[in-house]
């Protein structure tokens, strides 16, 4: 059972939310929160320690406190949060390597919990309808956060071979969404005009920020479960999301999606890598059987409910216009019908 917990990334939104809610557990004797900058939000009774996980001093902090459980939540999804792609990769990959090196040397660490991502599965037209935890992607992520997540998981597996006595739980989350968290996807659906790859209507799964936090707490305080997919029940497509968010869509050829993404990225409105744009075309599905049967977790929000909770706090695309949702829904239906007719004509 966790007694002394070290949490990385407490100055980020999910890390702070996790630390704050873990503070309510009376069985946890002490919580240390590590980050390079002080948090601007409450972290409960967590003791903040200003430190960089890329620095070997993290090992001394763990030894002095007698840490028995390490919760790694500092794998950063968007480079603009760190000042650029180079810094993002250093924090994600080099930071994880240093953290695991400290865990390997520790005489007190008994459990490692890692917040991973379903981005490790990539996204391609050859993928299965639903990924189980033991499946490998048909096309590996080649850039950005997805590639970092694959490397992080590789280092964790190496650590597990070197320290088989340490329990490991790794949760692969679908896109986390909610009223307060900000990600590339929340920025994308906040655009006044949502670019959508022409001829595609990818399926998405979401997990609410509250459910993501609850799953991490269960992984920290409950039994060790290995690798588990975490997502809300059901799916939404891109056009359904746009309709719920009351956003008009702009169909663009997939070949031009990269150019559109670059323009949006340079404008500072949203941050999209090539892999994220591919995800918008092909989507991804996660099998969550292990989440329910092994982790023993049931999300409070379905995929649709999580997205609707995010939209509830979203500014309208056109202030004062209440009928945008109906217009978007009609446009989505017309676009889908037109695409269907094109495919009917080209089918052999």
From TrEMBL:
Domain NAD-dependent epimerase/dehydratase: residue ranges: 5-230
A Pfam family it matches: Epimerase
InterPro entries noted in UniProt: Epimerase_deHydtase (IPR001509), Lipid_A_modif_metabolic_enz (IPR050177), NAD(P)-bd_dom_sf (IPR036291)
SUPFAM superfamilies to which the protein is assigned, alphabetical: NAD(P)-binding Rossmann-fold domains
Official protein name in the record: Epimerase
Lineage, opening ranks: Bacteria, Bacillati, Actinomycetota, Actinomycetes, Micrococcales
């Amino acid at each position: 059972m966790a007694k002394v917990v070290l949490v990385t990334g407490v100055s980020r939104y999910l890390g702070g939310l996790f630390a704050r809610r873990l503070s309510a557990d009376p069985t946890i004797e002490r919580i240390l929160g590590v980050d390079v900058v002080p948090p601007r939000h409450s972290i409960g009774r967590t003791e903040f320690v200003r430190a960089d996980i890329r620095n070997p001093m993290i090992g001394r902090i763990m030894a002095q406190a007698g840490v028995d459980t390490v919760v790694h939540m500092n794998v950063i999804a968007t480079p603009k949060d760190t000042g650029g792609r180079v810094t993002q990769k250093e924090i994600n990959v080099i930071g994880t390597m240093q953290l695991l090196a400290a865990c390997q040397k520790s005489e007190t660490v008994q459990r490692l919990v890692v917040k991973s991502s379903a981005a490790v599965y990539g996204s391609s037209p050859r993928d299965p309808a639903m990924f189980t935890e033991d499946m490998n992607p048909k096309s590996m992520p080649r850039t950005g956060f997805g590639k970092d997540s694959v490397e992080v998981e590789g280092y964790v597996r190496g650590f597990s071979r070197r320290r088989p006595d340490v329990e490991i739980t790794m949760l692969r989350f679908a896109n986390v969404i909610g009223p307060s968290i900000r990600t590339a996807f929340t920025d994308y659906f906040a655009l006044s005009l949502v670019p959508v790859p022409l001829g595609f209507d990818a399926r998405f799964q979401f997990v609410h920020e509250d459910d993501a936090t609850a799953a991490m707490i269960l992984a920290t305080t409950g039994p060790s479960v290995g690798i588990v997919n975490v997502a809300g029940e059901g799916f939404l497509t891109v056009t359904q999301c746009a309709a719920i968010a009351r956003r008009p869509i702009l169909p663009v050829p997939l070949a031009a999606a990269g150019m559109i993404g670059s323009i949006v990225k340079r404008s500072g409105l949203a941050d999209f890598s090539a892999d994220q744009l591919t995800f918008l075309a092909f989507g991804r599905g996660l099998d969550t059987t292990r989440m329910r049967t092994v982790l023993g977790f049931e999300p409070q929000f379905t995929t649709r409910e999580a997205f609707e909770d995010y939209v509830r706090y979203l500014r309208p695309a056109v202030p004062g216009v209440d009928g945008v949702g109906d217009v978007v829904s009609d446009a989505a239906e017309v676009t889908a019908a037109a695409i269907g007719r094109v495919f009917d004509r080209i089918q052999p």
